[in-house]
Design a protein that fits this description.
With about 160 residues, this protein is an alpha/beta fold. It has 6 helices and 6 strands. It has a 6-stranded mixed beta sheet, with helices on both faces. Strand 2, helix 1 and strand 3 form a beta-alpha-beta unit. Helix 2 crosses helix 3 and helix 4 runs parallel beside helix 5. The longest helix has 15 residues. The N terminus is likely disordered.
């Protein structure tokens, strides 16, 4: 695993710690996003991989999801070819609400309505011009609570019952 890449404090005094990982199909977007986030107000932990050699996506999904679950990262970003495998693997980790988003609107809504804490992206299906907007919407949108909070609480309660 690679080290945390420096970020700058946000104007409101808060900055996010972002864990990011991919498989070999998502590495180009991971590099692009890491540079984008590192140049902004966030600290970024790159969970790998470092090359385009074939890898097993669950290894990286679990690494990112565990960091978010343990509070070592505020949010996670995962990228693979379809985004589906990463989402499935990340959602196996307690406390993770990973959501596959294809548009900036979906990214904002999944934070506002579902309090998603891990964003998954489909490298094969996401336009390069949209990827930054999707990630920025995910990171800058806040959970609305209210009726949405009641629903997220039901998910959390069910998860607790399964332990």
């Amino acid at each position: 695993m690679e080290e945390i890449l420096g970020g700058v404090d946000r104007e409101d005094g808060e900055h996010l710690k972002i864990a990011i990982g991919s498989d070999h199909n998502g590495i180009a977007f991971k590099k692009l996003l890491t540079e984008h986030l590192r140049g902004g107000e966030h600290d970024v932990f790159d969970a790998g991989p470092a090359t385009e050699d074939s890898v097993d996506y669950p290894d990286f999904a679990f690494a990112v999801a565990e960091m978010v679950s343990k509070g070592e990262a505020d949010r996670g970003i995962l990228i693979c070819g379809s985004g589906i495998g990463m989402s499935m693997a990340a959602n196996k980790v307690r406390g993770i609400r990973a959501a596959l988003c294809h548009s900036p609107e979906e990214a904002a809504l999944t934070r506002q309505h579902n309090d998603a804490n891990v964003l998954t992206l489909a490298g094969w299906q996401t336009a390069e011009g949209d990827v930054m907007k999707i990630v920025d919407n995910f990171l800058n949108s806040e959970f609305e609570g209210g009726r949405h909070g009641r629903r997220v609480d039901k998910i959390k309660a069910y998860e607790e019952e399964q332990s």
